[in-house]
Amino acid sequence: MDLPRVAGGVAVELPREDPDPGDLRRSSRFVTFEGGEGAGKSSQMAGVAGRLRGLGVEVVTTREPGGCQMAERIRELVVGGGPGAFDPRAEWLLMLAARIEHLRAVIRPALARGSWVLCDRFSGSTVAYQGYGRGLDLAWMGEVHRFVQEGLEPDRVILLDVDPEVGLGRALGANRFERESSGFHRRVRAGFLAMAGADPERWRVVDAHADKAVVAEAVWRAVVMS
């Protein structure tokens, strides 16, 4: 699927100057970072968090699955083992159980006190991996996600898009998703791009093949520009 990119081609016209730091401090925002294995989500999220903190913005960084004690215990279970370790339905429901605890313990309290929340993976990854990747029913998943999240959706979703072969070459092979077939990873990428294409108001697609500095600037502007 051909989508305009923020890096390696501009998806939206973003101002060249950063917004007023006071504007960034005045309201909370929930930003999620999505993408396939080896896309660079964690490092890019850390870079954005550092820049925001440098402007005096309170930032909470977290991840899925995980982010709180109970959810991290579920993470240990769900990312371990090899391909085929779980029925796809069980895998998905474990992800959602972790999300419920994560929302309760970390995300909602942080947003309520006015913090920015930056999250490495959220519902986009669940739909891409367990929906497009595993073949679970997307409409059914959507209904359950609305129940689990109680209407909470990210204000902005940053999709770091990378060819699966490139991303897997960067990855460490430390979790079972990285050891899935190339076909699985192609379906996951297609799912991410389909979601981005269907919701261009919230999603920004960043070409993660570009130079790291170029990607970092594109990600920053996609996060802070409305």
Automatic annotation (TrEMBL):
Residues 1-27 are annotated as: Disordered. Keywords: ATP-binding, Kinase, Nucleotide biosynthesis, Nucleotide-binding, Transferase. Residues 33-217 form the Thymidylate kinase-like domain. It catalyses: dTMP + ATP = dTDP + ADP. The keyword Acyltransferase does not apply. GO terms for molecular function: dTMP kinase activity. Residues 14-26 have a biased composition (Basic and acidic residues). Phosphorylation of dTMP to form dTDP in both de novo and salvage pathways of dTTP synthesis. It comes from the Bacteria. Pfam families: Thymidylate_kin. Belongs to the thymidylate kinase family. This is Thymidylate kinase. Signal peptide: none annotated. ATP binds at residues 35-42. The gene is tmk. Its EC number is 2.7.4.9.
